[in-house]
Records
---
Amino acid sequence: MSSKLKLYDTARRETSEFVPIVSGKASIYVCGATVQAAPHVGHIRSGVNFDILRRWLVASGLETTFIRNVTDIDDKILHKAIHEEAPWWAVAMKYERAFSDAYRALNVLPPTYEPRATGHITQMIELMEKLIANGSAYAPGNGDVYLEVRKLKRYLTLSNQKLDDLQSAGDAEDTSKRDPRDFALWKAAKPGEPSWPTPWGAGRPGWHLECSAMAAAYLGDEFDIHGGGLDLVFPHHENEIAQSESAGQKFARRWMHNAWVTTSGEKMSKSLGNSLLVMEVLKRVRGVELRWYLGSAHYRSMLEFSFEALDESATAFRRIENFLIRVKESGAEITKVIHPAFADAMNDDLAVPQALALISEWLRAGNSALSAGESALEQASAIRGALDILGCDPFDPNYGLGAKNLDAAVDGLIALLLEQREAARVRKDFAAADAIRDRIIALGINIEDTPSGPRWSVNG
RNA sequence: GGUGGAGUGGCCGAGAGGCGAGGCUCGGGACUGCAAAUCCCGCUACACGGGUUCAAAUCCCGUCUCCACCUCCA
């Protein structure tokens, strides 16, 4: 690599060189989904952004452990279960699968491990015992367990807020708290709710405890990067820090947060309906095209979603893809090369937009070379290497499988039609030639005449 | 009220003191029987008002507008 990897740290509010705790290795914990609804494009952007980070760390030679949790028990899941008249665990699993399907469709690599909150109750109880023993947390006797934020030596360091400046919480009527800002590690079970036994009574995990417990379980006392959406900074990540530090852990060295997908300048909310669910958007564009779109903005910039921009982005991607296919059709083996300029861009806090500018340059040079009958292998290899890091390699077997068996048959059929068109063109019967072409185009197949004869491709 | 972020050409989107990132759209041209694809040329922008500087989109002061978080959030 020609430069050193620098990454932004939310806590320090600046970029700095990434120095792994253990040389040659990287450990990442990303807050994944609360599986209470199907994923929308905002959820999946987070998945894509951190997948690009992960791929780049791996490409940089780091042995990377990537943990992304599933929150499979919380208030909303319980509410949803009542609404859907199904057991809470069936609801959680249904939406966990929906997330998994979306990740797969967008070629987001599976995490090294994907822990579920409900599978780590033991670790949570151990953590609470430690926190109560050292006086950081208390159990008022009603089955709840709280962390006492006034006793923290430091708190709100990520969001840079002062405890007294916080607007008072809405649940201030909860009198079992010593301070209204104390947060629940553990919630006492209400009648009919799922619960697990603890020394303080049966109940279920608070939202924040699971991540502290699971990060420690898989990554240890200290790990390199903790990631998640920008809206998790407070309270979720602040409270994770509070819990883990109070338990004597060093916790995350660096915090990274992805910005939102917005619509009409505003953060996407679930009230917008179903139109921006990943599976709905995938009826319009392919997974690789949605990924290209979501990954094209810098991860810390808001991405203003629009179908127009999505379509444009998809068109731009097809242009790149088309180039690679043409090079491949010429018989060349396109390897994946990490160009030094691309490495520089990625090392600069994952400057994907700059990388896209490079790809544009290589694309133009490569197309020119092809037109001139020269080899475009160098450009194609650099582009493919870059696309691979972005998770958008069109030759990645994760994309476009399924229709493969038909390809040979379709290729033969269209070749047959194109032969007839060529025959018409040779005898200058352009009306007949164009009629054949129009019929093919009407089927959604693009036709291009090249010096080496016509070629076809499926139109989106 | 507290804490952050943003305002760049028709549109999208980088950059963070000095050669106009890049893409899309649009206009012109090359190539083509015509298209498509591709390439070339063109379209000189940084919310507003001051200031610092030889030089400001970039730094400083002030103003306006928008967005987010403040215990459900990717």
---
Amino acid sequence: MNLQEGREKFIQTWGTLGSNWGINRTMAQIHALLLISPEALSAEDIMEQLKISRGNTNMNVRALMDWGLVFKELKAGERREFFYAEKDMWKVAMQVVKERRKRELEPLFGTMTDLKKVKDASAEGQQFESTIANLDSVIAKADKTLDLLVKADESWFMNNFLKLMMK
Amino acid sequence: MNLQEGREKFIQTWGTLGSNWGINRTMAQIHALLLISPEALSAEDIMEQLKISRGNTNMNVRALMDWGLVFKELKAGERREFFYAEKDMWKVAMQVVKERRKRELEPLFGTMTDLKKVKDASAEGQQFESTIANLDSVIAKADKTLDLLVKADESWFMNNFLKLMMK
DNA sequence: TTTTTCTTTCAAAAAGTATTGAAAGTTTTA
DNA sequence: TAAAACTTTCAATACTTTTTGAAAGAAAAA
């Protein structure tokens, strides 16, 4: 497998992986392309390399910036914008965890609070209450663990401790 | 919010959550319904409660069984099949982790092995090699961590240790 | 064996999601 | 100010995924 084939395979694999996890395939492909590009790319570059339209490129590059995975670079004497990706994959993983926690876990807390208020003496009510209480405790645990993981990334000690644990 | 409203809200929330994570919405809704049902339900029950077709019900119940989240129950003197869900949400989470690891991480290893073979002296080649090597190490770390987590579930000591850590 | 009851399959239709490309918007340059 | 160079928007279109329902299959009952 030569470089060109490798690049294509990586872009396609990352795209498939993304769509398995509820992330737009093109968004993941642009991310992959930027991850393996040594220099920041313009919208035009991305359009050409992935053979996608201008609109599609623009939308997905912005989404990637929203996720905190891609940044703009302003080149002196250049009018157009260039984009580059965070390339430290541990940081990428932490950023994704952080964002999904914010976007999905946080709204869930509100819903769980509402659902925990339901009271009903029937068998169905009992099962409902018990499932909700149990789920709530698992969600709370997951949240604490993810928080610990993300914070570890910002603390030298925990960072090393975790890396040791995962050896 | 009364029981009926709570049940509907839970089913809808679980469905949305599932589809955010690349899981068929209906599959997640059937799972939610079974999670809050004290008794095992027949295909007919599921069809009625979620207002979906027989084919859809059958396909998604089977998918849930494939995931190891739902089981068949044979009732004495009853011809049709009944279905119930594992209700311990910690076990549910572990089962999902286990399955996704098997379905997605394992095939990834093969691809990474191929991609690691690419050698190219150009700047693009250098960035490609470095991104792939870094990604490979993060994936390997994640895999070890998930393995630890799943195994912990089966070990009394690690189970208690982890629960303590996540306090 | 035939009928009944239930499960499974799958092609067609519907619903949902992503993509295009042209037009409008914005910023810089002349 | 006007033109040029680029970015953003969005309605129409294309594509993907899900759902339906009728038919076929299977197992139990008559």
